């Protein structure tokens, strides 16, 4: 039985699937993990965990289906992350994670002043923000010189797995385009002048596209994982882009909406669109471009409320449904971990407005769901204002299992969402990419692997009320930003 194996390294867990060549999931496995938050604004993870969990997941999947013939391996992972390793591929420090890690604000400011915002945008596509990899590399060089002196190579989760599986040192174009400002998006290559200025001691990873074969499983990797020697391994990419692949939301005019620990949006086209409020990146495939955005919290916010109240999701969802649209006069800003797009404000913080003694946890939970939906609306409006064509929206991720959250997002945004049959996410997309890479002449179609199962349509009767709430959402941020920024400074000092 011919199968591909896909593994994704996520923020809160690693997931793997074993998939037949017609898209059936034979087995799945998960390993939960936590990120480290040693200081306010820092979010890290020990990169060695990524390979350890890949090995454990792969062995579990192979044991579940001993008759499976593995013909290809797909990998993906959270990003952009900055994992620096020495010449022997030993990490020199924990990986610095994507935009939720906001430590490099001084480097963002300095590099922008040195290079010029217009020139940064012309070369790399996007202004520098907490999402950009370049300032985080500079942070290590400036703040941890002893660590920097040992750094020789740059990895992200997918490329770390590829290195261990095949020995290849490679990074995909999509991931590289988020190591701003070190990548030239128009010429699809590293921008040597700025690489030499900010990362000269780091060996440049050769570049490939996500669906290209990076190499084959070595004897050493086979002994560790149980995979056959010589099995092809794709280059892979960042998990959000692989999730878009998993549901077929990577065509011109598609928008992928990923419900996870954070919320992520990817609009796909062929034109390089530039706006200071969003991220312009290379796509997963040659010739494609993306305008992307992300909320710093979504599932993380609802999980916080669950832990705070000591109840479970089914009860909280039931109470949120009972609360009804508008959460009985509550309005929440979901910026509990700062915010990425479109406000690009690492010092933003959560705000709950309108609280009275009559409000309960169901109202708070409803307000949290509506807050993430209002954040999605803000992002979509900003994408469209920048010229993005959005014809079709596909929802993916663990949050799609809750119908109320999906309905709230459609009601608040006025958007129709398509929900595919399988929403397991990036690991499934990685397995699909591996299947297409090893059989290019008879490559499967994702529409056959994962057809649309449900469509969520907005309630037009709620549009006016949510229009008013969205206006208040924008004004609440503007009206509280000064005080919130002062509080954020106090938190850093503490």
From TrEMBL:
Pfam families: FGGY_C, FGGY_N. Gene3D superfamilies: 3.30.420.40. Residues 4-241 form the Carbohydrate kinase FGGY N-terminal domain. GO terms for molecular function: kinase activity. The keyword Kinase applies. It comes from the Bacteria. InterPro entries: ATPase_NBD, Carb_kinase_FGGY, Carb_kinase_FGGY_CS, FGGY_C, FGGY_Carb_Kinase, FGGY_N. Residues 256-437 form the Carbohydrate kinase FGGY C-terminal domain. Keywords: Carbohydrate metabolism, Kinase, Transferase, Xylose metabolism. Belongs to the FGGY kinase family. This is FGGY family carbohydrate kinase. It comes from Microbacterium istanbulense. The lineage of its organism: Bacteria, Bacillati, Actinomycetota, Actinomycetes, Micrococcales.
């Amino acid at each position: 039985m011919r199968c591909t194996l896909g593994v994704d390294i996520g923020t809160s867990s690693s997931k793997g699937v074993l998939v037949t060549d017609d898209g059936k999931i034979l087995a799945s496995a998960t390993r939960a993990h936590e990120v480290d938050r040693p200081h306010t604004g820092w979010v890290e993870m020990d990169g060695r965990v990524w390979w350890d969990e890949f090995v454990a997941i792969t062995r579990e999947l192979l044991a579940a289906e001993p008759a499976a013939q593995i013909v290809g391996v797909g990998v993906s992972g959270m990003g952009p992350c900055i994992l620096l390793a020495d010449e022997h591929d030993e990490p020199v420090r924990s990986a610095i994670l994507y935009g939720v890690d906001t430590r490099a604000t001084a480097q963002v400011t300095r590099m922008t002043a040195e290079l010029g915002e217009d020139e940064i945008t012309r070369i790399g596509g996007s202004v520098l923000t907490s999402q950009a990899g370049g300032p985080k590399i500079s942070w290590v060089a400036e703040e941890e010189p002893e660590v920097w002196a040992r750094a020789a190579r740059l990895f992200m989760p997918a490329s770390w797995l590829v290195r261990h599986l095949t020995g290849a040192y490679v990074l995909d174009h999509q991931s590289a385009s988020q190591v701003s400002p070190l990548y030239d998006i128009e010429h699809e290559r590293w921008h040597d002048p700025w690489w030499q200025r900010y990362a000269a001691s780091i060996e440049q990873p050769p570049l490939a596209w996500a669906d290209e074969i990076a190499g084959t499983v070595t004897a050493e990797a086979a002994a560790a994982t149980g995979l056959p020697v010589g099995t092809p391994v794709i280059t892979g990419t960042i998990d959000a882009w692989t999730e878009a692949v998993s549901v077929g939301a990577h065509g011109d005019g598609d928008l992928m909406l990923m419900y996870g620990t954070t919320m992520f949006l990817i609009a796909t086209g062929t034109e390089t669109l530039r706006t200071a409020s969003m991220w312009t990146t290379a796509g997963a495939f040659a010739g494609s471009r993306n305008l992307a955005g992300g909320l710093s919290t979504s599932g993380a916010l609802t999980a916080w409320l669950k832990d705070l109240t000591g109840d479970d999701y089914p009860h909280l969802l039931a109470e949120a449904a009972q609360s009804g649209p508008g959460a009985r006069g509550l309005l929440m800003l979901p910026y509990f971990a700062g915010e990425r797009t479109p406000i690009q404000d690492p010092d933003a913080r959560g705000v709950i407005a309108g609280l009275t003694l009559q409000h309960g946890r169901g109202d708070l939970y409803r307000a949290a769901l509506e807050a993430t939906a209002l954040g999605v609306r803000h992002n979509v409006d900003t994408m469209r204002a920048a010229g993005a064509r959005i014809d079709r929206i596909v929802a993916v991720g663990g949050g799609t299992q809750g119908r109320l959250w999906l309905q709230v997002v459609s009601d608040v945004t006025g958007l129709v969402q398509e929900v595919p049959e399988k929403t397991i996410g990036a690991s499934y997309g990685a397995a699909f990419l591996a299947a297409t890479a090893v059989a290019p002449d008879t490559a499967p179609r994702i529409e056959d692997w994962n057809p649309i199962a449900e469509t969520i349509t907005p309630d037009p009767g709620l549009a006016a009320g949510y229009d008013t709430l969205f206006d208040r959402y924008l004004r609440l941020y503007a009206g509280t930003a000064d005080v919130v920024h002062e509080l954020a400074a106090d938190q850093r000092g503490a």
